[in-house]
Structure to design on (99 residues):
């Protein structure tokens, strides 16, 4: 089976940010996303939501350049004032046209 290497961008953020971050990614050219409610705590121990350890995980698969642009924009606009993380990993996908 032939696969194509793309990037998986994962953002773990406060639930209040999830819709805004999804709209940002879509406005930059991302074609789809997956969200999952997760729980956890990081080194900052800060939160602004009603439930201290409630988080949303947003996953996007995209070409490397687009994934990096989205991650850079999120870091630039949100890291200073919100509790969130973002990371990229390689993703080998079948049916590249879906992404």
């Amino acid at each position: 089976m032939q696969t194509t290497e793309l990037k998986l961008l994962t953002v773990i953020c406060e639930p209040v940010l999830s819709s805004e971050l999804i709209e940002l990614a879509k406005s930059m050219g991302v074609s789809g996303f997956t969200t999952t409610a997760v729980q956890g705590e990081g080194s900052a121990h800060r939160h602004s939501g009603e439930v201290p350890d409630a988080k949303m995980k947003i996953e996007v698969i995209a070409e490397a350049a687009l994934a990096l642009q989205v991650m850079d924009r999120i870091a630039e606009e949100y890291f200073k004032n919100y509790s969130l993380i973002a990371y990229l990993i390689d993703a080998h996908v079948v049916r590249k046209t879906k992404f």
Summary: The domain at 4-98 is CATH 3.30.70.120 (Alpha-Beta Plaits). The mean pLDDT is 90.
